[in-house]
Amino acid sequence: MNILIVEDARDQRLMLSVVLKKQGHKVLEAENGKEALAILQEHQEVRIIISDWMMPEMDGLELLKETRKSDLGRYIYFILLTGNTDHEAVVEGMNHGADDFLAKPVNFDELAARLKAGIRIIELEKQLEQQKQQLVQAIETVEKDLESAAKAQEVLLAQPATIQHVSFDWFFKPSKILGGDMFGYQAIDGETLSFYQLDVAGHGIPSALFSFTLNNILSESSGRGSIVKEKSDQEPFYKVRAPEKVLASLNKRFQVTPESMLYFTIAYGHINSRSGEVTVSQAGHPPPLWIRREKASVEPVAGGGVPIGMMPDMDYTSCTLQFQPGDRLFLYSDGVTECENTEGEQFGESRLLQCLMDTLNDDLKSVIDQVEKNVRDWSELDRFDDDVTYLLLEWKP
Amino acid sequence: MAFEHHDEGHYTVVKIDESRFDASIAEAFKTYVFDLIEEGKSEIVVDLAAVRFMDSSGLGALVAGLKKLSGNGSFSLASAQPAVKDLFDLTSMDKLFKLHDSVDEAVKGD
């Protein structure tokens, strides 16, 4: 062990030094507190100080205070030498962080025993430090993994696009590295597009994994197992499955057990790119908002059902809207409206409606940016407490 | 203690003593209710009077309780504040749970 002896009396210092060296320790010496502090800074290996109390320049108590105050990056075990069994001195020393005391003249057997106790503490502290380092490394690994998973999640997201006269744009911001929100859109056949936005309960890894799975299932538009189509007797031997039926079959497939609480809310719909007919079905999701350009109005789409997975054999309904050219639909997760300001008030649906009214004549990208700005200004934080996702589509034949 | 319960007739009233029923207490609530159900309690009334905000995890915990009973008993809610009622409305959960205006009304019996 590396020990620093601080003692102004040269003969005493030398004697202690010789004895400790004999016991196999490495010893450094200082004549007073000031010198000792300099040595402590320079010699990182010093872990134990044995210091006299009364010294010129800086005494033992002052050295003790300075040692405890400064950030040395390691714990220093501090043994104070006292002139006699002075109880008040012991109390004062302990109050300032002394670990142990040794009465002068020093009994060398007692010194060896007290050093042993000190070394035990230092070894424990070293072990703790090592374990902390291992934990820090483990957390770094986990975070790196999460970040690559987040990149994988980003790749899953559909890019802003125009498909068959229907344009899509969106905003997606998980509250943690990974989120439980998801959305998507695609052409199912030559005139029907499907779109959805969903929110798995909770956030973090289990929710994100589940949202990955759902994205896979909902984007599978060909093949026998596809959930968005069903078999038919006539050419082309399939038909597009109605939104409420898609939700019912998702509900059949993903029932939560009492032990797992992974359920999700979703708004799922179709748009006929030729006729502008839109059909939307919801399961516990915030109602999508129909932005009507000509009428200059924004209307929540009625209807709703129980979140997917809550209860078996639930029926879902759908709502049909006749779009006029330029009409839009805004789908969003509750992270938008439940975003709280510093007073705990929620952003709410009415502010969202107002924002969409104000941006009636802006292009899709501007609307996306403006909603984000309003929600961010509301929360005044640079992060969100919940996943925030919204999807905007526009029909322009 | 975030939760407490007492018996009223053959009902067990579970009170949530927190203003936020969210992910931070959902798991603990689930465990609490599961323990009651495993002790044989089957007529459960959850008193939501103190809850100002509930999120999807809170809802999930209530459903977990409902599912745990698996039809052998009743699981109803009482004294929900407006914001909590809105959530039930939004998620159509009023189809799954009976919502009572007060605990008294909930334990009056069927």
From TrEMBL, chain B:
Domain STAS: 21-110
Pfam families noted in UniProt: STAS (PF01740)
UniProt cross-references to InterPro entries, sorted A to Z: Anti-sigma_ant (IPR003658), STAS_dom (IPR002645), STAS_dom_sf (IPR036513)
Gene Ontology molecular-function annotations: anti-sigma factor antagonist activity
Coiled-coil ranges per UniProt: none
Similarity annotation: Belongs to the anti-sigma-factor antagonist family.
NCBIfam families with a match to the protein in the record: ant_ant_sig (TIGR00377)
The protein, known as: Anti-sigma factor antagonist
